[in-house]
Amino acid sequence: MTSTSCQRCRAETELTIVHVADGDADPLHIRLKELPLRVCPEGHVQFVRPEFAAELLQHLIEEDEPELPAGEEKGLIIKKFMCESCHQALEPKSDHKHTFSIEIELEEIDAFGVDLTMPVYKCSACGKEQLHSLREVRKLTPAAMAHAFEDANIPPPPGVL
Ligand SMILES: [Zn+2]
Ligand SMILES: [Zn+2]
To answer: Is-above-0.85 flag for pTM?
Structure first.
């Protein structure tokens, strides 16, 4: 059995590209675009390598999401969110969702895209739009990603959902 054999039936797999796979963990929506996967003649789908999901999750949470505009969270019981630029309060209600498009490059894998769609909140003082907090989007990412993998016919690993 080589590393490119099907984990379920052991047949040889070949590379395939899934154009769109969507997953939700409300209010976060993740769309994976041009996602490379491997598929066997029986149609069993698997990651290009076993660590792929962990690598992607780590890349998103540690490198890409910290680049997104996001407020600062204050208060333990009643949460307040402050603008990252001018530190005034953000509007309590979001008026729309914004899609942030990220290009992901992992070692030895062709670049593919990840869209993160989240409600954005306007700063009442300077008008800058941003997420409520980085913590919120980070917390929702694993579940939304697992649903997107399900959409691409990859069963979620135990314990993720
Ligand atoms: Zn198979
Ligand atoms: Zn502001």
So the answer is: yes
